[in-house]
C-alpha cells in the first residue's frame, strides 16, 4: 500500500514521497535519519510515508504537521506512538491527525473500518480509564467486548 500511495502522490503532486517502513531487520538505521533530515530541510510541501511500526526506531519527525493514519491498527498505543513522533520537542507548527475511514455505501454507520474504529477507540478509552480511573465501573462483559470486540 505504501508503494501505491507513493505513486499516487507523485502523479498528483509531482512530489517523491520517501518511505520508512520500520522493518528493522531489513533497513539501514542511518537511512531513516537521512530520509527524515531531507524531509525536515525541504521547503514547502513534501511527503514522508512512515509505517507505525517505525515508531520503535525512536524517530522524531517534527517537520510534519499533518499525520494521516491510513489503515487502522488494532493497537491504539501503536497509533499514538506513531502520532507522537510529530509532537516531539522542536515542533513549531500545529499538528493535524487524520483517520480516513471507509463506510458502507448505503449506511455510514456500517462497514469494517467503522467497526474497527469503534474497537480501537474503546481500547484507547479503556487504557485511559485504567491509568486515570474516573467514571462508572465497567462490567466483565463490557470489558470482554472491548478487548475482543465481540458480544455475547
Write structural notes for this entry:
The protein has 152 residues and is mainly α. It folds into 2 domains: 1-100, P-loop containing nucleotide triphosphate hydrolases (Rossmann fold, 3-Layer(aba) Sandwich); 102-152, no CATH class. It contains 5 helices and 4 strands; from the N terminus they run H-E-H-E-E-H-E-H-H. The chain has helices at 2-13, 29-41, 76-84, 112-131, 140-148, and strands at residues 18-20, 48-50, 66-68, 96-98. The strands form 2 sheets. It has a two-stranded parallel sheet with strand order 1-2. Strand 1 (18-20), helix 2 (29-41) and strand 2 form a beta-alpha-beta unit. It is globular, with a radius of gyration of 18 Å. The mean pLDDT is 82.
Concise overview:
This protein is mainly alpha-helical and 152 residues long. The chain is built from 5 helices and 4 strands.
Question: Any key phrases for this structure?
Answer:
about 150 residues; mainly alpha; 2 domains; two-stranded parallel ribbon; 5 helices; globular
Set down the secondary structure blueprint.
Layout: H1 2-13, E1 18-20, H2 29-41, E2 48-50, E3 66-68, H3 76-84, E4 96-98, H4 112-131, H5 140-148
Parallel strand pairs: 1-2, 3-4
Strand order of the largest sheet: 1-2
Largest β sheet strand count, sense and barrel closure? 2 strands, parallel
Number of helices: 5
Structural class: mainly alpha
- Taken from the alpha-carbon principal axes, the silhouette is globular
Number of strands: 4
Strand content: 5-15%
- The CATH topology assignment of the largest domain is Rossmann fold
Tally of distinct domains: 2
Secondary-structure element order, as H and E? HEHEEHEHH
CATH class of the largest domain: Alpha Beta
Amino acid at each position: 500500500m505504501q508503494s501505491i500511495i507513493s505513486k499516487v502522490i507523485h502523479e498528483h503532486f509531482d512530489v517523491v514521497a520517501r518511505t520508512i517502513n520500520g522493518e528493522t531487520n531489513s533497513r539501514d538505521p542511518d537511512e531513516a535519519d537521512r530520509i527524515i533530515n531531507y524531509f525536515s530541510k525541504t521547503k514547502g510541501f513534501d511527503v514522508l510515508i512512515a509505517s507505525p511500526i517505525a515508531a520503535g526506531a525512536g524517530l522524531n519527525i517534527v517537520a510534519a504537521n499533518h499525520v494521516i493514519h491510513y489503515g487502522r491498527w488494532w493497537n491504539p498505543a501503536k497509533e499514538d506512538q506513531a502520532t507522537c513522533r510529530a509532537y516531539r520537542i522542536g515542533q513549531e507548527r500545529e499538528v493535524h491527525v487524520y483517520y480516513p475511514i471507509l463506510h458502507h455505501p448505503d449506511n455510514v454507520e456500517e462497514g469494517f473500518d467503522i467497526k474497527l474504529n469503534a474497537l480501537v477507540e474503546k481500547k484507547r478509552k479503556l487504557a485511559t480509564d485504567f491509568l486515570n480511573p474516573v467514571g462508572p465501573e465497567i462490567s466483565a462483559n463490557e470489558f470482554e467486548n472491548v478487548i475482543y470486540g465481540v458480544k455475547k
